[in-house]
Structure to design on (459 residues):
């Protein structure tokens, strides 16, 4: 009886202590979580991945009314644009037909020359088109969550819009993929200046315009130069459009992405079959 | 017996309602509304909810609720895990220490108080995350996000006041 009373007393004493220091404990827990996330541990990745899988469907349901309203508004607005678009598209079609003829001739020439050189063509890329259900681009992070459904998507795949690279897949959980944008502070993409073939790294810094770093000192980069992926490190293939240089002064080269990262509704998650530095973890691979 | 159980469940639900509504608002803040600059100016809805509930119903929004709301914000975001928790816990501490000054004051005073406390909490988070990355983050985006949060606070408080007045009775 006295032992039970002593146990009860101890438990209530511990409870009292926890209650007294709850705030300190929770502050410490926040710092510990930050340290765990800094170490890039597998536990943190897995926990984050599982939670994203649980939370993402909720966001998907929540944004449904907003999406319907936006779609209705877009439909009305599109009706007004149809006439102008029709005229513009006719002209564009005419121009594209001429380009297509030239493209066909170049394709045949390319095939003949490739056969002559015994060139091995790279494998065809598989892709999944995914709807963006959540986005974040504030001072602390630039990322989005996309619904990939039952398709096979893995960590490290390139995320493209119709205009170029927007980011890479960071996590896959359930039917959802978390994509880190090229403007995020954690994003470092090997790129090159298209015309000069000078290599560098496109480094995000949580602003809307990433910076070009690690380029040779004797290189002159001009405003308007196109930046494409270099294919170094084997994560992205070479030649994917990324953006163009908008400022090159004071040793800082600022690049504006071709894609409007704030208004992306759909992304193409492309698997080029490259096994680069971003290795899959078992939980990321889904069939 | 079953009626008593049902009443208890309803009571438990009502006591959790402030957290649930806040969680829904935090999730909604990540919605891609396809509006120019919306993504860059995403308001700190979590901090606004913490401030509102601690001012109006601190008995229904305890420390664990604050921590869980921060954790929820952290797992959706790709910002360092724990940074949102830190911001909200700091808001909790500040609100508790200023409750005498702000208690039962008109809305405009509460709004002003929120602006001051949010500035402090966002600044601390900005410093901590900058240290985490060993790189100063762009202050302009944080400033815009701060301004938008201040601007949407009346809307958030209107919604939460509706929940408080219509869905949570005083005896809960």
């Amino acid at each position: 009886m006295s032992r039970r009373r002593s146990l009860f007393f101890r438990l209530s004493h511990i409870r009292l202590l926890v209650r007294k220091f709850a705030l300190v404990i929770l502050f410490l827990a926040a710092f510990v979580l930050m340290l765990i996330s800094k170490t890039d541990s597998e536990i943190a990745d897995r926990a984050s991945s599982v939670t994203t899988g649980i939370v993402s469907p909720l966001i998907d349901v929540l944004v449904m009314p907003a999406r319907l309203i936006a779609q209705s508004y877009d439909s009305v607005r599109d009706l007004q644009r149809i006439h102008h678009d029709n005229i513009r598209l006719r002209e564009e079609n005419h121009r594209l037909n001429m380009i297509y003829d030239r493209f066909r001739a170049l394709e045949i020439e390319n095939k003949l020359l490739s056969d002559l050189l015994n060139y091995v063509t790279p494998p065809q890329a598989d892709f999944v088109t995914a709807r963006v259900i959540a986005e974040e681009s504030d001072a602390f992070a630039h990322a989005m969550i996309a619904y990939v459904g039952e398709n096979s998507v893995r960590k490290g795949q390139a995320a493209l819009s119709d205009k170029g690279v927007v980011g890479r897949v960071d996590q896959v959980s359930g039917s959802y993929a978390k994509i880190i944008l090229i403007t995020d502070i954690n994003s470092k993409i090997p790129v090159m200046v298209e015309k000069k073939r000078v290599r560098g790294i496109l480094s995000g810094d949580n602003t809307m315009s990433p910076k070009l770093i690690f380029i040779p000192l004797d290189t002159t980069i001009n405003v308007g130069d196109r930046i494409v992926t270099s294919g170094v490190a084997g994560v992205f293939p070479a030649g994917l459009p990324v953006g163009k240089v908008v400022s090159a002064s004071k040793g800082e080269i600022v690049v504006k992405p071709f894609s409007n990262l704030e208004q992306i509704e759909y992304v193409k998650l492309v698997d080029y079959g490259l096994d680069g530095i971003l290795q899959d973890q078992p939980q990321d691979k889904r069939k | 017996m079953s009626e008593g159980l049902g009443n208890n469940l309803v009571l438990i639900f009502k006591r959790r309602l402030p957290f649930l509504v806040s969680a829904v608002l935090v999730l909604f803040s990540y919605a891609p509304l396809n509006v120019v600059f919306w993504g860059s100016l995403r308001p700190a809805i979590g901090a606004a909810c913490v401030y509102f509930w601690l001012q109006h119903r601190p008995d229904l929004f305890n420390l664990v609720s604050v921590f869980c709301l921060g954790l929820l914000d952290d797992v959706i975001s790709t910002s360092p895990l724990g940074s949102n928790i830190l911001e909200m816990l700091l808001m909790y501490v500040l609100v508790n220490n200023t409750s005498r000054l702000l208690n039962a004051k008109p809305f405009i005073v509460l709004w002003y108080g929120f602006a001051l406390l949010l500035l402090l909490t966002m600044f601390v988070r900005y410093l901590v995350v900058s240290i985490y990355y060993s790189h100063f983050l762009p202050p302009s985006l944080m400033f815009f996000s701060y301004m938008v949060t201040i601007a949407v606070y009346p809307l958030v408080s209107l919604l939460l006041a509706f929940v408080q007045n219509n869905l949570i009775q005083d005896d809960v």
